[in-house]
Amino acid sequence: MSSDSLALLRKNAGQDIAALAEEHFKHDLQDSNRDALKSAAGKISAHVTIGSLIGLGLGAFLAFRLRRTRMQMFNAFRANEKPTHVKFADGREEAIPDMTPFMRPSTLGDVAAYTFFGFGGLFIGGETGVLTGSASAGKTISRDTESRERIETAFRRFRADVLRKEADALDTRRGVTELLGL
After folding, report:
1. Of 33, 41, 37, whose CA–CA distance to 146 is shortest?
2. Closest CA to 59 of 2, 126, 116, 144
3. pTM of the full predicted structure?
4. pLDDT at 116 over 90
5. How many angstroms separate the Cα of 61 from the Cα of each of 6, 57, 75, 98, 117?
6. Would you call 93 helix, strand, or coil by DSSP?
7. How confident is the model at residue 15 (pLDDT cuts 50, 70, 90)?
8. What is the spatial distance between Cα 41 and Cα 49, in angstroms, rounded to a whole number?
9. Measuring CA to CA, which residue among 138, 131, 117, 150 is closest to residue 47?
10. What single DSSP character describes residue 94?
11. Phi and psi (nearest 5°) for 46?
């Protein structure tokens, strides 16, 4: 599993791309545009962190509920009267083994439940945070139409430069992963 699978642990692309983005950030944008982008990035980060924490808490809560339900089912199974023998039509009687010890919830099962529910909640919460944070950041950026147009123009120029670098890397037979710093 890659660390990019969880929204909370994602890194930026490569050093070359980050430097290129920084150049466009400095030269193509005004101070108000930079502040708007930093505010939008902060909103995404906050949403991802809050979503991940909520998801982790929800996963732990669901694992606790699952554990409690398993224990209640086991106690109900154990308390019920169970047959001990089976009598066949020919009169023969066979003993039925007691399955109660095999039905008992184990510590390993509890650890697995908390682990998988915790990771699942972390993943779902983080990705939900990315979606809500992106929507909030988009609203922050699009408030001022003139600023939004400058940011979009700077982003188009940045993407064009990245594509030129990728094309140059492919022409010189360098791998794209080497270009991106992966």
Report:
1. 33
2. 116
3. 0.69
4. yes
5. 20, 6, 21, 32, 9
6. strand
7. confident
8. 12
9. 131
10. E
11. -65, -45
Check if the beta carbon of residue 105 is closer than 8 Å to that of residue 70.
yes
CB neighbourhood size of 52 (10 A): 24
Pair 48, 133: CB distance under 8 Å:
yes
Helix or strand run (H / E) with residue 137: helix 107-141
Query: What are the DSSP E strand ranges found in 7-156?
Result: 85-87, 93-95
For residues 182 and 16, is the Cβ–Cβ distance under 8 A?
no
DSSP 14: -
**Whole-number Cα distances in Å, 17 to 20, 164, 165, 178:** 5, 12, 9, 11
Residues forming beta bridges with residue 95, ordered by sequence position: 85
Measured between alpha carbons, how far apart are the two ends of the chain, in Å?
A: 15
Amino acid making up residue 40? A
Please say if the pLDDT value at position 58 is more than 90. Answer: yes
Residue 142 to residue 134: CA distance in whole angstroms: 12
Mean pLDDT of the chain: 85
Q: What is the mean pLDDT of residues 145-162?
A: 88
